[in-house]
Design a protein that fits this description.
With about 160 residues, the chain is mainly alpha-helical. The chain has a domain at about 25-85 and about 110-159. The chain has helices at about 60-85, 135-159, and strands at about 30, 40, 110, 120. Strand 3 (about 110) and strand 4 (about 120) form a beta hairpin. The radius of gyration is 29 Å and the shape is elongated. About 5% of the residues are buried.
Amino acid sequence: MGPPESPTGHPENQEGRRKRLARQPRTRCCLLKGCERRFHPRQARQRYCSERRGGRRNSDTGRRRRSQQKRNGQGRRYRDRVKNRKPAEPEAVNDAARVITTEHFFDHCCDRPSCYEGFVWARRSPLQRFCSHACRHALERVRERERRWKQARDLIRRY
């Protein structure tokens, strides 16, 4: 059998071509409120600039063990206090009821991960889920990016 008709597969024709490099994702903004620095994600769905940030903060084994020991000590001290407690004297019933104002309490907390700011619902927006526009836009960016990835993945699976 002779040489192929199209000599493009020969090594001397391949010199000008480069090896394809794996494409890296763009830099993105950390979702953690207060941090919001730019970082290069190592995984497709990485939302935080560091593995220690965000939802994985308490996953360290040593930290869990120390917190469990601390909690056990708290329980032991509480049980000792209950044993040594004097019997309660009956209180006189006060006619005026105690009123708790809503100034210091919030109806809801922000839906952005790691943002624990509370807010009071306004009558004109009873479906409010975020404490500010910045929090809402940060989560919208993440959801839009993940929606695009899912569409691209579905297109690849079809073909």
